[in-house]
Every structure is written in C-alpha cells, then in structure tokens.
Amino acid sequence: MTQPIIWIHGDCLSPRNPALEEYPEAPAIWVWDDALIEEWQLSLKRLAFIYECLLELPVVIRRGDVAKEVLAFAKEHNTNKVVTANSPSPRFDAICDEIERSVELEVFEVKPFFDYDGYIDLKRFSRYWKVAQKYVFD
Fold this sequence. Notes:
- This is DNA polymerase.
- InterPro entries: Crypto/Photolyase_N_sf.
- The structure is a single chain.
- This protein is α/β, with parallel strands linked by helices.
- It has six helices and five strands.
- It has helices at 18-22, 34-40, 44-54, 66-76, 90-100, 125-136, and strands spanning 5-8, 28-32, 59-63, 81-85, 104-108.
- The protein has a five-stranded parallel β-sheet.
- The protein starts with a strand and ends with a helix.
C-alpha cells in the first residue's frame, strides 16, 4: 500500500499534529470549509490567523466540501488511507463518516492542552483562554 494522506483540520493546526509526526513524508491537505466559515461567522482576522498557521505546515490548501476534497486528494495520491487528528466537533464526525465510506480512516488522539470537562465557547480564542489559563498556570 502507498503511504496515506493527512487531513489537517482546524482543531489541530500544529506541527506536532500526531498524524504529521507519524507520517512525516505523507502529503497533507487543508480544506477551507465554506459552510463552516459561514455558520460560525468567522472573521477575516480569524481566517488570517488560520492561514498564517497553515503557512507553518506542509499542506496543500483547497476550498470546498471537506470530505470530497480529501477523497479527491487521496485519489490523486493513489492511496486508500487518510489519517488525521481527533476533534470534538460533531461536524468532524460527519466528515469522517463520509470519508470512511470510500477509504480507510485512521484518527490519532491529541494530547489535551489541559484537562477540563465543562463547557467552553470555542468561537473566540479569548473565551477559550479565559477558562484555559486558570488550569494552565495554576
């Protein structure tokens, strides 16, 4: 089997992404999810931040339906395996289900930044950080 491709998503935009660490030579893809951008009303500032993060990673950047673009990228690289990092997003589960209908999918667990079981509003970093800093620095 050929090496897998790596699907990079917004919940693990790190050079320490476990999929990148496990398969450092594998081609990787990021897909701008127009539906998510509209649904979450992501600001231009947030989009620019994400783009700057992507510039630090060895990824091909595309736009469109995430599952379709990931599957097309896998086909272009003649592989039947996609690897990615886990995400708490319900949208992630739906995309994974669609990908798994066509190819094997391996999802790596991500070591949490801190342990927390409560609700955190993830639409803005400042709201996340307000909760996180209490656990990180205490």
